Amino acid sequence: MTHFKITHEFATDPATYWKVFLSEGYNVDLYERIGVKERTVLSRSEDDVSARWTVRIVPKRDLPGFLKKIVGGDLGYTEISTLDKVKNVIDVTIEPTLMKERTKIKARYTLTPLGAGRLARTFEGDITVDMPLVGRKVEAAVLEDVEKSYNVAAQVTTEWLARGGA
């Protein structure tokens, strides 16, 4: 198991952040810049206190060479998310299309107000790949990809907030 924690700060409040984060325009821009060739919203519901969505993602990039030799097939995943607007958290489960039965990715996406119109966005969780000899290497590759994506997401989010949001 590999534990991770990725934090970025933004000049905004939680309500404005969620307004941007949940807007379709932002998501289209974000996933294009992350390098996604397919983003399909499988389900979505929202009310005053929560939002739930399931999205299938297929990135443009390919699997790392060592992993491609082991598993073959298309790289992709389904992300199942539940937002608690009161607590400012999203619980996330990511189910890869490959090695689904051997891979567990669970995380929590949290907004923490820092005062003076600033907040920290933290994505923290665990990646477990149950494969003898290469599991840790696969976990490291997944984490590297997650970190790159969240750094791009931080840049996109900053730009959207600077333009006044959604």
Second CATH tier, the architecture: 2-Layer Sandwich
Average pLDDT, to the nearest integer? Answer: 89
Count the beta strands: 7
Q: Return Rg in Å.
A: 16 Å
Q: Name the beta content range.
A: 35-45%
**Secondary-structure element order, N to C:** EHHEEHEEEEH
Shape: globular
CATH topology value: Alpha-D-Glucose-1,6-Bisphosphate, Chain A, domain 4
Structural classification: alpha+beta
Low-pLDDT ranges? none
Describe the structure.
The structure is a single chain. With 166 residues, this protein is an alpha+beta fold. It has a single domain (2-162), classed as 2-Layer Sandwich (Alpha-D-Glucose-1,6-Bisphosphate, Chain A, domain 4). Helices cover 33% and strands 43% of the residues. It contains four helices and seven strands. Strands 1-7-6-5-4-3-2 form a seven-stranded antiparallel sheet, with helices on one face. β6 and β7 form a beta hairpin. α2 (24-34) packs across α4 (135-162). It is globular.
Layout of SSEs?
Blueprint: E1 2-10, H1 14-21, H2 24-34, E2 36-46, E3 50-59, H3 65-71, E4 77-84, E5 89-96, E6 103-115, E7 118-129, H4 135-162
Helix pairs in contact: 2-4
Key features of this structure:
166 residues, alpha+beta, 43% strand
